[in-house]
Amino acid sequence: MNSLFIYLSVLLGLLSNENPTLTINIHNIDALQGNIIIGIYSSEHGWLEKDSEIKHYRIPVNSTIESLVITDLPKGDYAVSMYHDANSDGICNLNFVGIPKEAYGFSNNFKPKFSAPKFKDCKFSFANDHIMDIKLVD
To answer: Domain spans of the chain?
Structure first.
């Protein structure tokens, strides 16, 4: 009987370690066209580099507020980067000095001033269900 109790306790402990849910609400979408491209990064290494995100999402824009619900992200420290690919060309178009011409946003609603943000500027700890609101900037 005692071993059955231990077995059930271990089993319930494993089940309770499920991944929490991260909901990202994207605000300030100007045009109902294209896609929102979202990258989730887990470290400074590779931050904002193409194809180095641990998760990558493409959400078709259908309204002025879009949401993404992520249920398979383990607990940890992360940072989110996104842009509105309004022309659906698959890249974040930049002007001649390297500033995005398309609306973009970061976790913590970090707004860069003279250079791209660092991972630590956008980092957040993810341990429980979390709702994040990110406002795109033009």
So the answer is: 21-135
